[in-house]
Amino acid sequence: MNFKDKIIKGSVGALTDTILSTMPKRFFTTREAADKYMKTGDKAFSCNAGIKWTCGYGKAAFTPTDYNEKTYYIAGYDSNNPVKGVLDDLCARAVYLDDNRGNGGAVFCSLDCVGISRHDINDIRKLVLESGKIGKIKSLNIASTHTHAGIDTQGLWGEKLYKTGKDAAFLANLKKQAAKAIIEAFENRKDGRLFMGYTEAEDMQADVRTPETYDKNLTRFRFAPFDNSGDVYVVNFASHAELLGDTSLVSADFPAYLIKEIEENVPGSKAVFFNGAIGGMISAKEIKKVYRNTIDCKEYMTGFGKQLGELALSIENETELKPILNIKSTGVDIPGANTVLILARFIGVLNNDIVRTDKRNKVCIRSEVGYMELGEKDVGIFLIPGELFPELYNGEFLTEKDSAHHRRASYKKVLCDMTDCRHKFVIGLCNDELGYILAENDFMLNETLPYINKATDDMDRDHYEETNSTGPETGRILLETTEKLIKESIK
Fold first, then answer.
1. pTM score, two decimals?
2. 350-376 core/surface letters (b: 16 or more CB in 10 A; e: else)
3. What pLDDT, in 10s, does the model give residues 385-395?
């Protein structure tokens, strides 16, 4: 680093230190306040089954109808991309699930957006819990599908870098409709049976950053009500929902067409999609053609969703799950190493909950992790607040030779080694959006402007994802917190 670069880096650091030391109290929260609406779940996991499953489904759209009258910004690619039309609806879809063991049910809500902060998720939880319209629940989880053609729900895609791209009225309506969908799911509950199956999605995904590793499975849950009124499908698959490319049209991207394929081919059915571990970056096979705009993006996107829907319906290896739902969540402090994100929070572009630490001019983002088991050790599900690099799940890290810092990854355990369930997977962007969650041995920052300019390592590999991360420690902290959570739950 030359003298000029040192001056620039030092100036950025000094500015951040000054801002953090002078931030008014209103920019900080306490851990107790940030965790107030988080339902922590079961104190301890149990293998005792209930007598039956109860499940309900709810849906509400939050697509803006006044996009010709005011400016909304598309989130996911370049900033300052105003909405010019609507291809399909943005929706909140929710499932209520109860094993009838007396501990209460659990809620899982999927939002068609690029990501949403835990602060805003807690607003939705507050609306639900204080509505008086939902019974005893032990867990309330909200995840983003990560569509890159939704409205800006984080603030990062506005007209200017220093101006939030969020529209207050739109976000308020999103929260209202999400709460409506959750309450509707509770009100529509029925008794029935729950089945799980999975299949490999052959040759459908791509990983555009080494190591090339990802979960190829499409996992499907099917709730069959005793009254035969229509099955509820829940689908998990790992892929960035970015197949429309740099569009100005609002769309839920491929998850909407996956859902459409199921619902149109199974009379009376309803479906919900949850994304997986998509850091890395995990996307669809032809994503580079989408980036270069050398493909009919709309046709490819709808076809990809339809193909996944067909794949979900083709599953025949279903296992019936006993009525056992064990789940536990806990708050976690994530060091605010990314000074750009902290500055964005200071000027109001972002609204994540940040808390003070014991160290001067250091702050943490308050987030959460969760873990769930369904059936008798049939399924283990990790609830992760961001875009997890799959190697932190499966342990397939870059070698010492191939990683940016030429050292091996060193973690006590990766997620898949923390449970002995027969089938396991990740629900990503769940209850927060912390951006990319990377392995420390391949985490490289630009020396002069870390978190602003991307770095390039000595193998000429691009390190873009680090600029959209909270910092190198995030993965380790999430793994260690999850492992502790599981040990405390399973005794």
1. 0.96
2. bbbbbbbeeeeeebbbbbbbbbbbbbe
3. 999 999 999 99
